[in-house]
Amino acid sequence: MTPTSGKNKVTFKSFGADLVGDLYVPEGFDEAKKYKAIVGASPFPQVKDQIPATYGPEMAARGFIYLGFDYLGMGDSPALPGEFKQSRYMFRLIENTWDAVSYLGTLPFVEEIYGLGVCQGGSIIASAAVTDHRIKKIAMVSGMMAADDFQWADRDVVNQQIAASNASMQKMYESGEPDYVTPFLLNDEMTKEEFIEVGGNPMVGETYDYYGRDGVKGPIAVPNYTNMHIGDQGMQSLISIGQAYADKIVQPSLTIYSKSAYTAICSTQFVEKLTNEHEELAFDDFSHVDFYYKPEAVKASTDAVAAFFNRSTD
Predict the structure, then answer these.
(1) Per-residue confidence at 101, pLDDT binned at 50, 70, 90?
(2) Beta-carbon contacts of residue 208 (< 8 Å; ≥ 6 apart)
(3) Where are the alpha helices (DSSP H) in 81-145?
(4) Is the pTM of this model over 0.90?
(5) Among 70, 83, 98, 259, which residue's Cβ finds the most Cβ atoms within 10 Å?
(6) CATH numeric code, 6-152+239-310
């Protein structure tokens, strides 16, 4: 394909399905030139019209080609035959990312490929890069790489989540019908006040401001997004290998996070285990979700990522 400057709709194969993506291309694109390309990875449970639609134009404005896409079973990408929509399964996310790298590798104007993940996308990129050295550098923003201590801190709560997920999987297997739930206890109709009343963690307010019915990237603002998700998701999202394989990563990496964020431990413990060439950028004045969409936080992160990806490693 020969893209034009701006956003280009693309498809590429993964698990035999056509995943749908947006390829963001710099102004004044020249197909005879070579560009650095970025495969983007988004937070759970996002679609390409959320984080990728924010970071894609920003990275293109900084001279990069950026691919944001809907994972298998999400957004505009199909589920596999016999499966259901709204199913982000961790190991498939990694394999979808490998296939996205393969797709970028077919483009004659792509010179090198980098990975940029936000929130769960950080874990996806870090995990994919362990054995995919076609990805030359990785950057993670508000990343959930060291998720075990964060996700498994209260074993009683986790075991309740697992029990519900197990029951949902059995129900779907026997009925052949999807079983949709609210992983964050947030549905598409709640007001902010209703969600805060039941939310139960320090991030409920900022979570609603982004994902809620009236949020900047909620189901009204992004029509193909929903807060409902397949019921066995808890079995899948509790398995995270980002931190477990951190010492195996050889590519230069950059970790960006907020020191005050509820999720900061997911970056700091990951960094502690790294043995590669690594840079760390911690902010005092932004929250976890600020990096999703607030202009000053997005500018700070994308400026840093662009500088890191452009820096010579010779």
Answers:
(1) very high
(2) 186, 190, 192, 195, 196, 199, 214, 215
(3) 90-105, 120-131
(4) yes
(5) 70
(6) 3.40.50.1820
